[in-house]
Amino acid sequence: MSKNIAIIGAGISGMSTAYLLSGNGCRVTIFATAFSPYLTSNKAAAFWFPYHIRNDKRGIGWCNTSYQYYRSFSDQPQTGISMCQLKKVLRVNTAEEEPVWISFMPEGCCRAMEREELAPGIERAYDVTVPLIETQIFLPWLQQQLLQRGVLFVEREINDFGEIAGQFDWVINCSALGARKLCNDDTVIPVRGQVALLEPRSGMSIYLDNESLLYVVPRKDAIIVGGTYEAGIETTDTEPATIERLLQNAFEVLPELKEQAFIGSWAGVRPFRAEVRVEQEAGKNIIHNYGHGGSGFTLAFGCAETVCNMVLSTQYSVLSTE
Ligand SMILES: Cc1cc2nc3c(=O)[nH]c(=O)nc-3n(C[C@H](O)[C@H](O)[C@H](O)COP(=O)(O)OP(=O)(O)OC[C@H]3O[C@@H](n4cnc5c(N)ncnc54)[C@H](O)[C@@H]3O)c2cc1C
What we know:
single chain; alpha/beta; Rossmann fold; 14-stranded mixed sheet; 7 helices; binds flavin-adenine dinucleotide
């Protein structure tokens, strides 16, 4: 008999988990207080790149698996996913960032650029092929796929796992910041990210400079110019002075952006946790999958696959479903 699964959360973590479980014959119900387009997941830039996950070796597998999923989705234009060039730069006099992230790169997707290719002020740069996820296209597409497979979406706040655990074989907790209350987990911290939006333009690469927290992401709906990393701030308001600073920072490096009209700004709140939590709650039919911080898309399908393997493997089975 197929397993009956509840997922708490309808962001990229919950929907990618639902995608893999429903694709493996499980019946899935998603409970959430909010849905796309009203989630942090809708506010992501969103490109594949390991961020704040580099000390966690599990992240290498998760990032690689997600990369493969996105690459296969990129064959279908309606998914809103494409493979894109990303230029990762290190400025002159930058305190050398340990290049741990290189070990997260799938084979053959990353090339160190030659000195003569570098702009003035740049010490080192890498040319990386990464998936670009147009959240405004991909999240509705994913939701539609789930609906077609019979996944149920239920608007409901879950305050205690006991409310639903008895009715399902497994409950998967993809509640992001909601885990603070749901699991009494105060190690999950909100981290606001503000971005400016410029009118879109084709033919650009993604630009990433972690030192100055600058990223420029050429999407179909806007060029996203980020960003900020404001720990402890949970509002999704943007601040005009901050947005102006982000733009000036970008104009310094990419002056051609000055020609693009300013079309707005937004902010999202990352669910940061020092260690992403993907594990079974001891002795219970609950599996956690939350705390992906600034790498939720980069990790999503890898974490979802781990969860899916746990659900499908009998060794984790708590309730008898036969
Ligand atoms: C500005 C910005 C740029 C970013 N750029 C990137 C990027 O380029 N690449 C990348 O990989 N990541 C990026 N991120 C990070 C990424 O957006 C997040 O890691 C990801 O969206 C988290 O997804 P999630 O599904 O875990 O959480 P969310 O999208 O927040 O979804 C959480 C879900 O849980 C539900 N929920 C919570 N509590 C309960 C409850 N008690 N009962 C029922 N439902 C509940 C909510 O209603 C919601 O449906 C960025 C983030 C920001 C803010």
